[in-house]
Amino acid sequence: MRIKIFMLCASCMFALTQAKAQWVVADPGNLAQGIINTTKEIVQTSSTANNMLNNFKEVQKVYNQGKEYYDALKKVNNLVKDARKVQKTILMVGDITDIYVNSFEKMLTDDNFTVEELAAIANGYTKLLNESDDILQELKGVVNASTLSLSDKERMEVIDGAYNKMLEFRNLVKYYTNKNISVSLLRAKEKNSTQRVLDLYGNENDRYW
Description:
With about 210 residues, the chain is mainly alpha-helical. It has one domain (about 25-200). It has helices at about 1-15, 30-45, 50-75, 80-105, 115-145, 150-190, 195-200. Helix 2 (about 30-45) runs antiparallel to helix 3 (about 50-75) and helix 4 (about 80-105) packs parallel to helix 6 (about 150-190). The longest helix is centred in the C-terminal third of the chain and has 39 residues, at about 150-190.
């Protein structure tokens, strides 16, 4: 009975409108892959920072579609413990894409980075997003009908493992972002323009140092 309740809650969470034990309607993995593929394309086709900034609007379109999904997912309440942790794990993918899109948009207007460095930074984000997507695939297996033979203990072990790994990756994306911004700050310091960079990214407890 507990598994059936979990499957029902998980399907409601993923589909939001359908009570089926499938990963349907809005696949968070597809949303992440959409951002990854679009980022790779803009990096390959952009020859200047301004060109990359203009092309980055395509990434933002995919991000906005995903944001609608994650915002809706946040409103799903009254889930059993298993499904709640699945929900939190998926929402962390939303956090990761949010950090990437909003931070990288600012980096694109930062003259302390060359276009080659911006491309390398973007590629770094895609690798981290790819890892996050791999974790989502583990969760996808848990809510798929073919895994109903899993015991409660086995199911929770998969969910706990995915949650912990996703938490680690979210923290890694934050660290990666802050380290890149710290490079800009160091360069700005040499040009006596530190305040401009702090105004661009925000100055919260010297988190970039």
